Amino acid sequence: MVINSGQARQVLAAVGDQGPRGERLKAFFGCMYYAALRPEEAIDLRREENLISLPESGWGELRLTHSQPRSGTRWTDIGQSRERRELKHRALGETRLVPVHPELVILLREHMERFGTGRGGRILTGPRGGTVAEWGYLEVFHAARREALGDADARTPLMGRPYDLRHAAVSTWLNAGVPAAQVAEWAGHSVGRVLALPIIFCFLLG
Prior knowledge:
This protein has helices spanning 5-16, 19-35, 39-43, 47-50, 102-115, 134-154, 163-175, 180-187, 191-205, and strands at residues 51-53, 60-64, 66-67, 85-86, 96-100. It is mainly alpha-helical.
């Protein structure tokens, strides 16, 4: 279920309160809410390759080039659970431009100043510089969700999974009057899928 901007910010703040892991993951979840990135796209973000503009204030811009979907070690060519691939719904070599909200600009700049970058210039990493682990970010997410939303809302489907942050970003863009075709381009969706999201949200809230 979609959340409003106040709830999203409360959850992001609560993520940062979840100890050292949460502090490292705040920008990760911020990428999902403010830029509609998929988890596997945020995991692959690299400073030199993907950051077109990250000013001290105002809007920035990302150019997404790859993702690291989780397939399990049996299904990758490198024996690891994630493998670098082309963007979802994009041919090999195709890229996607995404605006960076001023609040996400701040999150990313603060994150890199504090934690630096990992192997290959990756921005969002685990404590030892490796790939962000799914079990770790899910644990932090659900703890932060309970803290931010309270017991009553935490028992509902409201933002029941991290991916709902991405859906909230799409909904926010549409509600701000951004044309559906532009939202689809930024989010890496089809226009039909983007237009269906508000209907899905209304049904769930209904």
